[in-house]
Amino acid sequence: MTKVIIYTDGAAQGNPGRGGFGVVMMSGSKRKEISQGFRLTTNNRMELLSVIVALEALKQPQLDVNIFSDSKYVVDSVSKGWVFGWSKKNFHNKKNVDLWKRFLLVYPTQKVKFHWVKGHAANVENERCDELAVAAAQSHHLSIDEGYEKSQE
């Protein structure tokens, strides 16, 4: 079975503010980096979106995937099963509903294990994701986080 290792990170400059995410995906000798910046978003949205984009980038179903994230918000929400309870209650009074619903569509397509890693602790791949996320947030090509901006209207 193919094993995939994914590191993810999100960043926001101001919360809310400009934001971005970074992803490093590795499988065997293959490596892929993904990043994107947004003009107005939050750190938690970028942390969650990085995981979603990584899972959506996988070309085959039911791969053995290990995701490493420094976001307790994301890791605990999935590992402790909170998001599944939120879903049953139609995400009543929860934030980032659009992203959690998107996550729940892609999550069952893979065999995913989440691992929390301490941020800014000299973990090479986590640091690389942080660099990608910050650079994306600072870029001149910022996308619109429609889910966030529409929720603010």
Task: List its traits.
single chain; 153 residues; Nucleotidyltransferase, domain 5; 40% helix; 31% strand
Would you mind describing this structure in some detail?
With 153 residues, this protein is an alpha/beta fold. It has 6 helices and 5 strands; from the N terminus they run βββαβαααβαα. The chain has a 5-stranded mixed sheet with strand order 3-2-1-4-5. Strand 2 and strand 3 form a beta hairpin. The mean pLDDT is 96.
Element order: H for helix, E for strand: EEEHEHHHEHH
Name the CATH class.
Alpha Beta
Category from helices, strands and their pairing: alpha/beta
Which blocks of ≥5 consecutive residues have pLDDT under 50? none
Second-tier CATH architecture? 2-Layer Sandwich
Helix tally? 6
Helix content: 25-40%
Globally, the shape reads: globular
Within CATH, the superfamily carries the name: Ribonuclease H-like superfamily/Ribonuclease H
Q: Averaged pLDDT, please?
A: 96
Strand order of the largest sheet: 3-2-1-4-5
Portion of residues in beta strands equals 25-35%
Number of domains: 1
CATH overall fold name: Nucleotidyltransferase, domain 5
Topology:
Elements: E1 3-14, E2 17-27, E3 30-41, H1 43-57, E4 64-69, H2 72-79, H3 82-88, H4 97-106, E5 111-116, H5 124-138, H6 146-151
Parallel strand pairs: 1-4, 4-5
Antiparallel strand pairs: 1-2, 2-3
Helix pairs in contact: 1-4
Quick summary of this structure?
With 153 residues, the chain is an alpha/beta fold. The chain is built from six helices and five strands; from the N terminus they run E-E-E-H-E-H-H-H-E-H-H.
